Amino acid sequence: MPRPSVEAERREQILLAACQVMAEVGLRALRVGDVAKRAGTSHGTVHYYFATKRDLVHAAFAFNFQRSLDRRRPILDAAGDPRSRLRAFVDSYLPGGDPDTALAWRVWIELWNEALREPDLQELNERVYGEWRRVVAGIVRDGQDRGQFRDGDAVETANLLISMIDGLAIQVLLGSRNMTAERMRASCDTFLRGLEARPPAA
């Protein structure tokens, strides 16, 4: 039996490969053999870690979320002011030149599509969005406490921002001529400027 550290590394390789294959061919066309080939391992090794394709796919979606969160951890844990943190957080989601971000977006889209018919994936989506909502709302509250953001419901603000990012990013990924990554950034900047507290009247 492989050592625990080797098992964890191999499992991660398989999950990353599953995300890569899913992003390229879609969930419905994903085959365990293709994942094994991409991971540089055997079909049997994949099934050692994941009994079924369904188990593999569900684990890959959860892995994709955790990987996205880990990449943004330095932004979320930074001691900088909330305006800078929120802007950096939004910028990190622009589906532009970063291949990891583009990969993650394509996996998200596959998750949403499949979750229309899969209750377990609906629960995963609920958990993921609950976490993003908590993170963004926390930054907004911090900004409100410091007088940088206008007063209001921080959770509602988080919902509006997250849903705007999702909707615009899908258009960018679909190659819309009217919604490029640059226009997405401009739209997000407009939203963020609208959050800023107004200076007191003279």
UniProtKB/TrEMBL annotation:
Domain (HTH tetR-type): residue spans on this chain: 8-68
Pfam families per the UniProt record, alphabetical: TetR_C_6, TetR_N
Keyword DNA-binding: yes
Keyword line: DNA-binding, Repressor, Transcription, Transcription regulation
DNA-binding region(s), chain positions: 31-50
PROSITE patterns named among the record's database cross-references: HTH_TETR_2
InterPro entries: BetI_C (IPR039538), Homeodomain-like_sf (IPR009057), HTH-type_TetR-like_transc_reg (IPR050109), HTH_TetR (IPR001647), Tet_transcr_reg_TetR-rel_C_sf (IPR036271)
Protein name: TetR family transcriptional regulator C-terminal domain-containing protein
Species, as recorded: Sphaerisporangium flaviroseum
